[in-house]
Design brief:
The protein is an alpha/beta fold and about 325 residues long. Helix content is about 40%, strand content about 25%.
Amino acid sequence: MVLFLSRKDVESALTISETIEAVEKAFKEHGLGTVNMPLRSTIRVEDHKGSVLFMPAHIKSMGALGVKVVSVYADNPSKHNLPTILGVVLLNDPKTGELLAIIDGTYLTAMRTGAASGVATKYLARKDAKQVGIIGTGVQGRTQIAAVCTVRSVEKVKAYDIAPDRCKSFCEEVTKQFKIQAVPVNSAQEVVKGSDIVITASTSKTPILNGEWLDEGTHVNAIGSHTPDARELDTTAIKRAKIIVDSRDAALKEAGDLMIPISEGLITPDHIFAELGEVVTGKKTGRQNDDEITLFKSQGLAIQDVSTAKKIYDIAKSKGLGKVLTL
């Protein structure tokens, strides 16, 4: 028998703080070298401007084994009234290989991506960070703000999106949910200037953040771009920042933000300071002073998905959520 968990079930089971806890533990195990996680496979569907990714992982200490199948279609919101990102996670029993659960992966992906930024912010942002700027106010943007507000005492959010109505609604929701001031602004530069934490959560293939805008001491979570030909950050931003990635292998094969300046000879792979797991385990020190610009470049790892899926499954079982299926 297999437990089917819908988006509604996932939303009922999961809080952002629980997700951050699960994802932080997954990154710790990654930093200790105790996970089995092949590099994800990607199929490009170029005629529809989409990609489908297959992401397996096993985290032994967490009893988490599974695979996520996720699609990324930039035109979905405008052409099909669907989220840019859609997915499903299959969770298996590590002892037998038996399928335990089929879990909606769309909301899970947003939560675990936000949680990774929450972990990065916990270790890399200044302790007194209070003002957040975000570029891109879709589904991912909401969980990014939730995660950052969980690990820092945020007082104000500035937001920019190419769709003003969406940005306005986003700010209204953030104000209501987190009881903080959230305001739309007219440009990406307005978002960045004066912000202690900057989040890029767009679908842009060309830079939306100019590194000259960054104040000393800023922390950046860059989550939007994840292919070799796309970048949200210009080369100045990359060169000015201490770069922390979720995975070196993934970043050097998939992250246009890094691959493009490397190919142009403007930085080398050694410009990557650390993986997030190395910072979580204390092998490397993330922020060393209040003047550093730190940057977490997120590609998204399968360990985030299976650790979160295992957390959802355990909570759902205890609460009696979901529907039991016989395959």
